[in-house]
Design brief:
416 residues; Rossmann fold; five-stranded parallel sheet; six-stranded parallel sheet
């Protein structure tokens, strides 16, 4: 089936570049739906979705947008309109993916458009600021693809054509290869880190699959948590096992390794049954290239690789995190259990390891016992989070919810 790619850009100033992308897609057998997000100028040729359409979707006429007299304010309106039209085009089945082109202004708009599309829909941005620290993590759609627009600030040349042609081929190829999610089995969402730190998924994933469920494990290093929360917000999970809260601690501590301000909220707001555990909530992450801040210089330290390293939260910080954790769980609408492993919460906090801090763990446990909302069931486990007892307890709760109908029954493997 022929795939249609939505092409977004300012056709008044980037017409040649956008038409080059269109020609590349069409030469490879795809179709293109064009969207002009210009404000002042007009495209050389009419687009399928005009700047007038975009402005109206943003709640103004294009003349009213121009009358704002402020480039930033104008593009905020155009971004709002463009994102709404992108989402509508997807719902109407008119597009199979999107590609956008821009400098900082066009990229700002394109990021909103990418956020408007569901996970799994190809979304490519060709930008002069791809991979830049100017772009905060919470602006990025979890499965976004960015390609540096090298040498492309103004006009076509052989260098930027290389980037544009690759981007055109990539988005069309992705649209052709994309597979819609298989909804034949209920989906369990789980958070974790690599198995050198947290190991429970090795036991839980096959056990849940045997019960007839599909399991998606999200790497809690920023972008993974963003994908997890986006799907939880969409109601994609029948049950959540949110057992790694390192991103939550990072958020509260101001670490750049964060998955956004809505961490630990979306499953609860949807009423999705959830089990929560404090896996790796004792660690704060830093990028490998960062200097460790002075406040953390005298603490235990673990250098995981050249990309990421961690220090340990002290007892006072861990107590504060419990209050933020409780405030979020208090708002949950569905069944919620907090699993508290009394023997430790990640592999490096065991005796003899870099993050071992029994006083800090004891302070955390004491605060959980005193602060956790009464409507959230506290389940204490006299074991480490990586011990078999933790997995056995999680499965006992899961089976109880399954038998009582709280969780949608999966298709049992024995029935297939």
């Amino acid at each position: 089936m022929t795939k249609t790619i939505l092409s977004i850009g300012t056709y008044d100033t980037k017409n040649a570049e956008l038409e080059f992308i269109q020609s590349c897609i069409e030469e490879q057998g795809g179709k293109v739906l064009t969207m002009d997000v210009s404000v002042l100028g007009d495209p050389e040729n009419p687009t399928d979705i005009s700047k007038h359409d975009v402005a109206r979707a943003g709640g103004m006429t294009i003349d009213e947008v121009i009358a704002l007299g402020d480039e930033n304010k104008a593009f905020r309106i155009m971004s709002q309109g463009a994102a709404g039209l992108v989402a509508q085009a997807w719902r109407d089945g008119r597009i199979d993916g999107m590609i956008a082109l821009g400098g900082t202004m066009g990229t700002d708009l394109a990021l909103d458009c990418a956020q408007a599309l569901p996970l799994g829909v190809p979304k490519f941005i060709v930008s002069t600021v791809s991979f830049s620290p100017l772009i905060p993590p919470d602006r990025l759609a979890p499965d976004i693809q960015m390609i540096l627009w090298a040498g492309g600030l103004y006009g076509l040349n052989s260098i930027c054509k290389s980037s544009l042609a690759q981007a055109a081929g990539a988005v069309l190829g992705a649209a052709k290869a994309a597979q819609p999610p298989d909804n034949s089995k209920p989906l369990v969402g789980m958070t974790s880190l690599g198995s050198s730190c947290l190991k429970y998924m090795k036991t839980l994933k096959p056990a849940l699959e045997q019960r007839g469920f599909e399991v998606a494990v999200f790497h809690s290093t920023g972008m993974g948590g963003m994908a997890f929360e986006k799907l939880a917000k969409e109601g994609a999970f029948c049950c959540v096992m949110d057992f790694c809260l390192q991103e939550f601690g990072n958020l509260l501590a101001g670490s750049l390794v964060s998955s956004g301000a809505d961490r630990l909220t979306n499953a609860g707001s949807n009423g999705t049954p959830q089990m929560v555990a404090p896996g790796a909530l004792d660690l704060v992450d830093f990028a490998g290239w960062q200097e460790i801040p002075p406040d953390y210089s005298d603490r235990p330290f673990h250098e995981h690789n050249r990309l990421i390293k961690s220090s340990v939260f002290n007892a006072d910080e861990r107590r504060r995190w419990v209050h933020d954790l409780a405030a979020r769980l208090e708002k949950t609408r569905g069944e919620t259990r907090f699993l508290l492993p009394l023997g430790g919460i990640e592999e490096w906090d065991r005796p003899g390891q870099e993050a071992h801090d029994p006083e800090g763990l004891a302070a955390f446990i004491e605060e959980v016992r005193s602060v956790l909302p009464g409507r959230v069931g506290l389940v204490e486990i006299d074991a480490h989070i990586n011990d078999a007892d933790f997995c056995e307890t999680a499965l006992e709760i899961f089976d109880g919810w399954l038998n009582s109908g709280i969780i949608e029954k999966g298709r049992m493997q024995a029935d297939t």
